[in-house]
Write a structure and sequence with these properties.
144 residues; alpha+beta; four-stranded antiparallel sheet; 6 strands; globular; disordered N terminus
Length: 144
């Protein structure tokens, strides 16, 4: 029964997300269950492929979605630079003129942000620590 409830919760969450956020932004390649051949995965010790990060059930909204780098970039520009859905959620951090968000799971990390003038950056790395990802994003914004 628990698996059925988790599956129903995932389906309901994804339906709401697609209806109210992703479809209005024109995004189609964001899902919690991508085909295995569409999953980027980091490499661990001796170059072995790491198991993909997965999240399901009630924790899915906290980071269980997969997106192509292109759709992630579109999400950043449409949410932050163009503000198509209004002001970003409070979970986006603000530092000066920069609105940003980051995250890391099992060695993969991402940083996305946009300046008030519409300049934006999205950096994704499949290995290493989160700090170099943030430093790269800061360097790109500084040089823009």
């Amino acid at each position: 029964m628990g698996a059925a409830l988790a599956s129903a919760a995932r389906a309901e969450y994804e339906e709401l997300l697609h209806e109210h956020v992703l479809a209005p932004l024109g995004l189609t390649a964001i899902t919690s269950n991508p085909p295995p051949d569409n999953q980027l995965a980091g490499r661990g010790f001796l170059g072995r492929r790491l198991r993909p990060w997965t999240m399901s059930g009630a924790i899915l909204p906290a980071g269980g979605l997969w997106a192509t780098p292109r759709d992630t970039a579109h999400l950043v520009t449409r949410l932050l630079a163009e503000r198509r859905l209004g002001e970003p959620a409070p979970s986006w951090q603000t530092t000066g003129r920069l609105r940003w968000h980051d995250g890391a799971t099992r060695g993969a990390s991402v940083f996305a942000g946009a300046m008030d003038d519409g300049t934006w950056v999205m950096v994704h790395r499949l290995s290493g620590h989160a700090l170099p990802t943030e430093e790269t994003a800061a360097r790109v914004l500084r040089d823009a």
